[in-house]
Design a protein that fits this description.
Blueprint: E1 5-7, H1 8-15, H2 19-27, E2 34-36, E3 39-43, H3 44-51, H4 56-62, E4 67-69, E5 72-74, E6 76-83, H5 87-101, E7 112-118, E8 123-130, H6 132-150
Helix pairs in contact: 1-2
Amino acid sequence: MEDALLGVEEVATILDLHPKTVRKLIHDGKLKAARAGRKWRIARQDLELLTSTVDNAAAIRASEGRFVHGGKTIAVSAVVNIDEIDREAAIRISTTVTAALMSDDPDLSHTRFDQIYTPDERRVRLAFWGSPSVVGNMLILLSHISRRGEE
């Protein structure tokens, strides 16, 4: 069924993540879920929302990514377009970036990441907001992913 509810383990399998990472996404409010007894249930449409379209304008307004240096606050944003990519590859890239941002590192707590896949253009657009070092590291990660895809 298209509207079926999924369990944490099923979502973890689909996203190629550990179930604890899926629970963290739920706890952090990044993945909408409902409790059914002692288990979480995720609607397929909420899973697709996590891995596809987001409101980038709202994300920019909500962004708190800051780096303070010498009394000055510095925030960095970067937008990356990857052309000629299918939906499955775009989801794998998004999942990899999300997993990298899920660590307990306090520098990552104010980092924002959004992505949108445009099937007609076969393009994924990734947007990052945060400290210069975190955004820079995400760009390096994407560079490694793209090199691996070329091999």
